[in-house]
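In the design runs reported in the main text, the only information available to the sequence generator was the tokenized backbone. The following block is the verbatim input for one such run; it is reproduced so that readers can re-run the procedure and compare outputs position by position.
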């Protein structure tokens, strides 16, 4: 087991796979969905051999001291530090630490574990910037267990050796980290999927997420070849479902880790960039709040995978970077949420589906409020920074959400410089075999004139944004009544988006959002420019060496770095 696309074998935490499929329900004899039965990741009974850890902060610089907080039922334990780049390199190893089991506080998702420091190590000055995996290990009576921590290593002097920065989406990961009883999508405290869609979304998530807890299994490392949420087209009459999520549950991984994390998303692009000789320097989203000047010495910035959550302050840092002449390559999809950081940047807050319950809901400073960027109570469409809007795109090739869609981007402006030497024609479907479009995407409100798409501007899209490619996607899951189908999204997200954007969930509001688009766009912003790839699967396409996607990515980066 190791990070996806990394060939070296490293054993992961030993555990009997769990299954959460329940009894047959009353709805036509179909199986209950996996979402109705899961419990969140976290500690096992105290008599089980287990080990858990987390680092003191999301990122460090060379020379910093990493504090490793560890709890284990084993008598002793050790740890390894791996750099996960184009090579998976073991750089440091220690063992022989006395094991101590520390209790997990009530409401740990909010308050954090508060475990004491179990070990420290100073990062050598010559370690390269990148993504670092901390594997804690324990062994007892011939049984070995391990668990994965993570930190980003920044450059000692940002921009000194490379003018390309990659921002790792650690805020977005945290929303999918269900260790200890919940995440931004689920809580052990509320499991009632027969309730009204808006009630389910309002009650079934955690608004406050503490960084001082372990990462759920699967966010940092995942088996090579593990299925992805975006799937091949289904046959006629077939049941719909989410095989990747079911695979995770059946194999002892947190179900939410199919949707975010280093293993399946950010790490794929990181390895591709290094393999192509770009030598990016890495920072975390947390660093934009910690140091607003951190992008000052770079010429280009990349985000990738599923960078769904941003603070207003971090977005402002990125805006300033672009406006002053920087190039931003967003090789990612699904930009939706404004979060805020509290408690000395250790707690991430987003009231999301229950934004009316946010104690800062009426704060005159809209940047302090939490919820959807596009919502009427924030009204700061992400397209002005990221090149597309999350609620104008969203789902494809998952469950009953465009399960037989094109799977790729339909090209409309093949003459754009981003497509140079990529051999694309008008009407081509770019990356359809992967699929490239899915599982979540971004779009813009658009219209057609003379066979070409243009933004209407009704969703805040700037006039100078060009739509290079566009593919239909949807915000509502269809149920065709096929036996065995697992409907998980249904109309819940559509109901929420309609209320958030237009103040009320009405049929008219739903009609404005039900059908969206996945887009590739380009725009200028101040002295800089933005290229948006608009899909969470761009990183997967790079890892699979899809030739046209690789050429387009090189075109963008080379222009931004010139």
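Verbatim output:
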């Amino acid at each position: 087991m190791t990070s996806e696309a990394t060939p070296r074998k490293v054993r992961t935490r030993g555990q009997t796979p769990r299954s959460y499929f329940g009894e047959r329900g009353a709805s036509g004899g179909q199986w209950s969905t996996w979402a109705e039965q899961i419990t969140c990741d976290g500690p096992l009974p105290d008599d089980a051999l287990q080990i858990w850890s987390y680092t003191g902060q999301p990122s460090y610089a060379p020379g910093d001291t990493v504090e490793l907080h560890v709890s284990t039922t084993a008598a002793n334990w050790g740890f390894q530090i791996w750099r996960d780049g184009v090579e998976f390199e073991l750089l440091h190893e220690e063992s022989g630490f006395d094991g101590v089991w520390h209790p997990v506080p009530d409401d740990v998702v909010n308050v954090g574990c508060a475990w004491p420091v179990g070990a420290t190590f100073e990062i050598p000055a010559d370690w390269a910037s990148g993504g670092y995996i901390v594997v804690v290990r324990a062994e007892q009576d011939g049984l070995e267990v391990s668990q994965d921590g993570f930190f980003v290593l920044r450059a000692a002097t940002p921009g000194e050796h490379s003018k390309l920065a990659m921002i790792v989406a650690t805020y977005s990961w945290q929303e999918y980290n269900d260790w200890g009883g919940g995440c931004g999508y689920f809580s052990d405290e509320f499991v009632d999927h027969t309730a009204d869609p808006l009630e389910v979304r309002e009650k079934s998530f955690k608004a406050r997420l503490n960084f001082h807890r372990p990462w759920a299994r699967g966010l940092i490392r995942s088996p090579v070849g593990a299925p992805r949420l975006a799937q091949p087209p289904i046959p006629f009459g077939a049941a719909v479902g989410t095989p990747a999520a079911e695979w995770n549950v059946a194999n002892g991984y947190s179900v939410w880790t199919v949707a975010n994390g280093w293993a399946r998303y950010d790490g794929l692009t990181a390895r591709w960039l290094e393999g192509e000789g770009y030598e990016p320097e890495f920072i975390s989203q947390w660093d934009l709040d910690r140091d607003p000047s951190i992008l000052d010495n770079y010429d280009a910035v990349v985000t990738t995978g599923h960078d769904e959550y941003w603070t207003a302050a971090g977005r402002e840092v990125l805006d300033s970077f672009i406006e002053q002449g920087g190039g931003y390559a967003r090789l990612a999809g699904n930009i939706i949420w404004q979060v805020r950081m509290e408690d000395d940047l250790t707690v991430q807050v987003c009231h999301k589906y229950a934004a009316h319950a946010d104690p800062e809901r009426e704060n005159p400073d809209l940047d302090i409020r939490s919820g959807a960027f596009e919502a009427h109570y924030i009204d700061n469409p992400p397209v002005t920074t990221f090149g597309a809007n999350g609620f104008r795109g969203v789902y494809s090739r998952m469950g009953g959400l465009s399960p037989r869609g094109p799977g790729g981007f339909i090209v409309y402006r093949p003459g754009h410089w981003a497509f140079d030497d990529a051999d694309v024609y008008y009407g081509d479907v770019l990356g359809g075999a992967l699929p490239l479009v899915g599982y979540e995407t971004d779009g813009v409100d658009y219209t057609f004139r003379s066979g070409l798409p243009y933004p209407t501007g009704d969703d805040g899209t700037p006039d100078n944004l060009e739509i290079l490619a566009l593919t239909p996607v949807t915000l509502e899951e269809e149920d065709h009544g096929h036996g065995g189908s697992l409907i998980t999204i249904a109309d819940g997200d559509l109901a929420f988006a309609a209320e958030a954007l237009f103040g009320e969930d009405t049929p008219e509001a739903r009609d404005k959002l039900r059908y969206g688009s996945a887009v590739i766009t380009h725009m200028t912003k101040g002295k800089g420019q933005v290229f948006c790839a608009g899909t969470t699967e761009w990183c997967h396409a790079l890892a699979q060496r899809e030739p046209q996607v690789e050429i387009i990515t090189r075109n963008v980066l080379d222009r931004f770095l010139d």
